Amino acid sequence: MASKIYDSPEAALEGVLFDGMTIMSGGFGLSGNPESLIPAIRAAGTKGLTVISNNAGADGFGLWMLLETRQVAKMISSYVGENKLFEKQYLSGELELELTPQGTLAERIRAGGAGIPAFYTKTGVGTVVAEGKPVETFDGEDYVRETWLKADLAIVKAWKADEAGNLMFRKTARNFNPMMATAGKVTIVEAEEIVPVGSFDPDCIHTPGVYVNRIIQCTINSKQIEKLTVRPREAA
């Protein structure tokens, strides 16, 4: 079996990127972002991207790097705060935005990975979220129909990966990463640590290797703190 391990982000992305593609990018705030793969996509200059991610990074971090170079044409997200560039591009009409409730976004991605083309949810009924979408009544309650999300490429950040692509995530860095790994035609994982097959207890595997096509060792792993709050220092 061919190895899934690649020497660098650039090598792992070779032959995968094309203009106008859809990319899923893991992360929530500054936690669990594929920090090594995003700069490589930026350097490749791939443009006209539709990016599916909870948010578009923060100023100077994460997907912000692709916004700065105007490589992103559309974002499908649930949160747009903490990013002045995102706000500026959207308000000026440079960037298309499909704003999706966070739970709905997660379920749309999960549905894409599970092969479920549509589902119904109460979230967004009677709001702009439901405009143009079918609404049906179940047990006397209205539900809006949402459709799956899939991508040409999913870029995922893992804590540990074995050589077969089985993944483990750590704490809040798990976020959207496991479900995105299932919903990409090609899934590329950057892992903090790559270990031999058999190193994991099967009960501790969060994402099976069947969903993973390529793996790299992280080249960037900054683990930034988005908002640091501490109590005042007590007087001596």
UniProtKB/TrEMBL annotation:
GO molecular function: transferase activity
Sections of the chain in a coiled coil: none
Entry keyword set: Transferase
Entry-linked SMART domains: CoA_trans
Pfam families referenced in this protein's UniProt entry, alphabetically: CoA_trans
PANTHER family: ACETATE COA-TRANSFERASE SUBUNIT ALPHA, KETOACID-COENZYME A TRANSFERASE
NCBIfam families attached to this UniProt entry: pcaI_scoA_fam (TIGR02429)
Name assigned to this protein: CoA transferase subunit A
